[in-house]
Design brief:
By secondary structure, the protein is of the alpha+beta class. It is built from seven helices and 26 strands. It has a five-stranded antiparallel beta sheet, with no helix packed on it. Strands 3-4-9-6-7 form a five-stranded antiparallel beta sheet, covered by helices on one side.
C-alpha cells in the first residue's frame, strides 16, 4: 500500500473483478484527435486553452510483485454540472503494462494491451462532482503470449494521456483522402465527417472545412448543414475537385502536404477546430504481389523501425535511415501519433502493424496450440486490428497494414483479424508475411 487515500476494499474488488469479463466495453475505434476552441491553437497544438481538457497522470496507490494485479494508479477529477451536455473521452498510452480501466470503482474494460494507444468513452460512468479514475496494471499469461518479445522505447509514464469533454453535438470522427479523380486529371477531396448528436431532440449542425495547398494557397472551402435526429450519428460527405494538384502527389521524394481544417458551427458560433495534414495518395496492390502507388508498383527498401523515446530523436533517426536509401518503415506495433506525423512530413512509407507477436509454438495448429488459433482470444485480435487501423488510416505515409511482423502462427484469429480489416473496404493491402500461402494475406 502506498497511499492512505486508496481503499483496501477497492483492491479486493479489483482482485475479484479481474477474473471476470468486464460488464461493459468502453473502448472505441476512431481517429486520434482532440478539438481546439481556437483556430490558432489548432495550428500550433496548444492544448492549455482547451476548455474541457484534463491531463491524466495518476499516482501509484498499490504495488504487488505477484498475482494478476501488479500496480494500481488513481486520479481524482472534478466533473462540473456543465459537463452534463458533454461526451467525455479518455485517451491512454505509455501506461507501462497491460491494464484494465476502472471509473468510480466500476471495471469498464477487459485488459488492454500496453502497446496500442487507446481511447474510451466514459460519460456513462461519470457523475457530477468528484470522480475516480483507476488504471490497474495486470499480468496475464494470455496477454503476454500475444506480444512476447515486443518492447517499447522508454517514455515518461502516462505521457499524452488526457481526458477531454466534447459537446453532445459534435464531430465524432472523420475519413479523409486526396485521391485521383476518375479520369486521373487532378485530385478529388473525399472527406467524410461523422457527427454525433447525443441530445434527445432533433438538431441541425453546420460542418465546414477549408484546405490549403502545400504553398499556402486556399484551394477550397465549404460549410454544409446536417439535420440529425436525437441520439443519432450521421455522416456529411464533401467531394470537391482540387485542381493543379498532380505536382503535389505525395511520395518520399515529394512529401508535400495540404493543410485541412475541420470546424463546427452551432447556433452561429464556430466550435471544434480540428487540424489535419493530408497527402495526395492512392495505394493498392497488384496480382504480382506488389504494393502500388497511383497504379504503379513500388520498389521498397524496408527496415524494421520503432519510434525512439521522443519525437526529435525519432525524426533524426528516420532522416538518417532515409539518407541510407530506406524508403519504407515497418514498425512492430502501433506507434505514437507523432511518429506518423513525422513520416508524413519527412517522406517515408510505413507498413503499420498490429500488436501481435507470439512466435512460441507458432507451428502448432491444434486449437489453442498457438494464440492465433485460440478462438477464445478472437475478440482481442479483432480489437487490436481495429485500433491499429482507425488511428492511422488518414496518414499519407501508410501504404499497407500487417497482422504481425513475426511468425505468430496462423488460424482462426488471424483469419478473423484479416476479415475485419478487409470488411472496411480500404484499397491498401493487408499483409501477413507468414500466412504460408493461405488466403489471409493480400501479397
Amino acid at each position: 500500500m502506498k497511499k492512505g487515500l486508496f481503499s483496501i476494499f477497492f483492491v479486493v474488488a479489483v482482485l475479484t473483478l479481474m477474473c471476470d469479463i468486464a460488464s461493459a466495453q468502453a473502448r472505441i475505434y476512431r481517429s486520434e484527435f482532440v478539438y481546439y476552441d481556437k483556430r490558432d491553437d489548432a495550428k500550433q497544438d496548444i492544448r492549455t486553452n482547451i476548455e474541457h481538457y484534463i491531463t491524466i497522470a495518476p499516482e501509484l496507490q498499490f504495488e504487488n510483485a505477484e498475482g494478476a494485479v501488479r500496480r494500481v494508479y488513481e486520479q481524482h477529477i472534478e466533473v462540473p454540472a456543465a459537463w452534463n451536455d458533454y461526451n467525455s473521452y479518455l485517451h491512454l498510452e505509455n501506461i507501462g503494462g497491460d491494464y484494465s480501466l476502472f471509473v468510480n470503482g466500476k471495471q469498464i474494460t477487459t485488459p488492454i494491451d500496453r502497446f496500442t494507444p487507446s481511447e474510451f468513452y466514459i460519460s456513462p460512468y461519470l457523475m457530477q462532482g468528484e470522480n475516480t479514475i483507476a488504471i490497474v496494471i495486470v499480468e496475464e499469461a494470455s496477454m503476454r503470449a500475444l506480444d512476447e518479445g515486443l518492447k517499447t522505447a522508454e517514455r515518461k509514464q502516462f505521457e499524452n494521456c488526457y481526458l477531454f469533454a466534447q459537446r453532445s453535438l459534435g464531430i465524432y470522427d472523420y475519413d479523409v483522402r486526396l485521391a485521383p479523380d476518375s479520369l486521373n486529371r487532378f485530385a478529388e477531396l473525399r472527406l467524410d465527417v461523422i457527427a454525433n448528436n447525443s441530445f434527445s431532440t432533433d438538431e441541425v449542425v453546420y460542418i465546414g472545412y477549408d484546405i490549403y495547398n502545400p504553398e499556402g494557397k486556399l484551394n477550397e472551402y465549404s460549410v454544409n448543414d446536417l439535420a440529425m435526429e436525437g441520439y443519432s450519428r450521421d455522416t456529411l460527405s464533401f467531394k470537391p475537385y482540387i485542381y493543379n494538384s498532380n505536382p503535389n502527389r505525395w511520395s518520399p521524394s515529394n512529401p508535400k502536404l495540404y493543410d485541412l481544417t475541420l470546424y463546427l458551427k452551432v447556433n452561429g458560433i464556430l466550435r471544434e477546430y480540428i487540424p489535419l495534414k493530408v497527402g495526395f495518395t492512392e495505394y493498392g496492390y497488384n496480382a504480382q504481389g506488389e504494393i502500388t502507388a497511383f497504379g504503379s508498383p513500388l520498389k521498397l527498401n524496408k527496415a524494421t523501425y520503432n519510434a525512439a523515446s521522443d519525437r526529435a530523436t525519432t525524426e533524426k533517426e528516420i532522416k538518417t535511415l532515409k539518407a541510407k536509401g530506406i524508403n519504407c518503415l515497418c514498425p512492430d506495433y502501433p506507434q505514437p501519433r507523432w511518429f506518423y506525423d513525422v513520416c508524413d512530413r519527412v517522406g517515408i512509407y510505413v507498413i503499420d502493424c498490429m500488436a501481435i507477436s507470439s512466435p512460441t509454438a507458432h507451428d502448432d495448429r491444434n486449437m489453442g496450440g498457438t494464440p492465433a488459433n485460440a478462438p477464445w482470444l478472437v475478440e482481442e485480435y479483432i480489437s487490436r486490428a481495429k485500433a491499429m487501423y482507425y488511428r492511422t488510416r488518414n496518414h499519407a505515409c501508410i501504404i499497407a497494414y500487417s497482422l504481425s511482423n513475426t511468425n505468430s502462427g496462423n488460424g482462426y484469429n488471424m483469419y478473423k483479424a484479416y476479415e475485419a480489416l478487409k470488411s472496411i473496404g480500404d484499397s491498401r493491402a493487408i499483409i501477413y508475411p507468414f500466412a504460408d500461402g493461405e488466403w489471409n494475406s493480400d501479397i
